[in-house]
Amino acid sequence: MTDQTAFVDIRHAQKSYGALEVLKDISLTVEQGQIVAIIGPSGSGKSTLLRAINDLDALTGGEIWLDGVQVNKSLPHRQYEKHINEMRQQIGMVFQHFNLFPHLTVRENVTMAPTLLKGLSKDAAEQLAREQLDHVGMLDRIDYYPSQLSGGQKQRVAIARALAMKPKLMLFDEATSALDPELVDEVNQVMKKLAEDQMTMIIVTHEMDFAAAVCDRVLFMDQGVVVEEGPPEVVFRNPTQQRTKEFLRKHLAGAK
Amino acid sequence: MDTELMLKVYPFFLEAAWVTIQLSVLTAVLGLICGALGTAARLSRLAVMRFVGAAYVSVFRGTPALIQLFILYFGGPQIGIQLDAFEAGVIGLGINAGAYMTETMRGAIISIDKGQREAARTLGLSRWQAMYKVILPQAARLMVRPLGVNLNMLIKSTALVAAIAVVELTYTAQRYIGSTYKPFEMFLLAGILYMIIITVVGKGVSWLDRKVQIT
Ligand SMILES: Nc1ncnc2c1ncn2[C@@H]1O[C@H](COP(=O)(O)OP(=O)(O)OP(=O)(O)O)[C@@H](O)[C@H]1O
Ligand SMILES: [Mg+2]
Questions:
Q1: Number of domains chain A is built from
Q2: CA-wise closest residue to A187 among A218, A232, A149
Q3: What is the pTM (predicted TM-score) of this model?
Q4: Which residue minimizes the CA distance to atom 13 of ligand 1?
Q5: Which residues of A touch B124 (CB under 8 A)?
Q6: I need a surface site. Which of A5, A146, B88, B149 has the fewest CB within 10 A?
Q7: Could you tell me where the DSSP H helices lie in chain A?
Q8: Nearest by CB to B115, which of A99, A112, A165?
Q9: Residue nearest to atom 22 of ligand 1 (CA)
Q10: Quick one: fold of B3-214?
Q11: pLDDT tens track of chain B, all 215 residues?
Q12: What interface predicted TM-score (ipTM) does this complex get?
C-alpha cells in the first residue's frame, strides 16, 4: 500500500455514467511543484478527471493518491467522510463560476474554512485573510461582498480562499473561461505567481498560450483517454497524434 | 347594518381574536418544527427517511385539514389520545402546516446552486457544515417570503377549529349569531379582525424579508 508513489498519482482512473464511459483507464503522475495542463475538446472528460482527484465525482475504478495517501480509499461511510474531508483540505479547487459564498464578505469567504476546520483564533484568521488577499491583490476589497466584485476579482478571491487552507495541490477547472477577455490576464497573473511559488497545479484550460507559458507538461484528452502528453513545446509545436493536430489547428485558428 | 351592536360586542371579539393569535403562534411554531424535520427527512441520505418525509407531505397535503382535525379530536380518544379542543387544534393544524412548510423549505434549499455545496465540500467542510454554514444561510433568505404565504394560510386555517368548539374568532361569531340573529354584522366583525391580524403579520414578513437580503 505504501510503495513509492508520485506526489499526485492517478492510477487507471475509470468513470462511467451508466453505459457512458467518460474516463477510460487514465493514468497520470505529477511531481511536487509541477504544473500540468489538461486540454481537449468539450465533453472529453477533463472536468470529470479533475473532480475525481478530490472525489467531487467518485471514480468507478482506479486509484487517486496524493503525497503517499490514497484519496479514494474504500472505508465505511463515516470513516470515509472524515478521511475525505481531511484530504480535501489539502486540495484547493477553483471553479469556472467562482462559487464564492454570496452571503459572506470577502474576508469571511477566505477565513470561514480555516476557522471552522483548523480552529484559528480571530486574530490569526484576520492575519491569514490579509496575507492571502494581499497575495492576489484583493486586500483593498476585504470588506466587500462578492456581488460587488468583477469576475476577475471574484476569481482572485476564490483563489485566495483555496490557498488559505494551505493546500498541497491546486486544481483549476477553466478558471478564466467565464471571464470577459480583459479580465483574464489578472487571474492568469495570479496563477503565474503561484507557479513561481512552486505550487503543484493541475489546470484544465482552453488557453493554449497560457498553458505553453506556465506548464511543465500538457495532456491532450479526447473521449475519455489521454491521446498525447508531453512538454508544451512538443505537444503544441510537434504533436504526433492526428487528433491532437486537428484539435490544435481548430483551436489555434479559432483563437486568432 | 347594526353598527351599534357591532360596537357593543366587539370587546368579546377582541378576546376571541387573542385566542386566534395564540392558536396561530403555537401552530406556526409547531409547523416550523415539523417543516424542519420533514425537510431533513426529505433531504436525507437514507432512502427510508426520504420515503417517510415524502409520505408525510403527501398524506397531510392530500387530505382536508378539517378531516385531520376530526380524526385527531373525535377519533383520538378511541386510540388513546385525549386532547382538549385547543390542544387538538394546535397539534392538528401544526402538523398540517408542517407538510406545506416542508415543501417550502426544501424548495429553497434545493434551489441553491450546487456549486455552493461543491465549493464548501472542496474546502473540507462536512455535509453538515456545508449545510449550516453555506446552504442554509442562503436558503433561509429565500424562505422568508414563501413561509410568509404559509403563515397567511395557517392563520386563516385556524378558523377550522371552530368546528371542534375552540372559542376563537369564527366560533365566537357563530355564537353571537345565535343570540343576535345578525350573521352579516358578526361575520363582518370577525373578518375585519382576521384582516387586521393578517395585514400586521404580512407587514412583518415583508420587513423581515427586506432585512435579511444580502447587500
Ligand atoms: N452527472 C453526469 N451524468 C451523466 N453524464 C455526465 C455527467 N457529468 C458529465 N457527464 C458526461 O461526461 C462527459 C465528460 O464531461 P466533462 O464535463 O468531464 O467534459 P469536459 O472535458 O470538462 O468538457 P468541457 O470542456 O465542456 O467542460 C460528457 O459527455 C458529459 O456529458
Ligand atoms: Mg469541463
A1: 1
A2: A149
A3: 0.89
A4: A43
A5: 85-86, 88-89, 113, 117, 165
A6: B149
A7: 46-53, 77-89, 106-118, 122-135, 151-163, 181-196, 208-214, 232, 242-255
A8: A99
A9: A47
A10: MetI-like fold (1.10.3720)
A11: 888 888 889 999 999 999 999 999 999 999 999 999 999 999 999 999 999 999 999 999 999 999 999 999 999 999 999 999 999 999 999 999 999 999 999 999 999 999 999 999 999 999 999 999 999 999 999 999 999 999 999 999 999 999 999 999 999 999 999 888 999 999 999 999 999 999 999 999 999 999 988 76
A12: 0.91
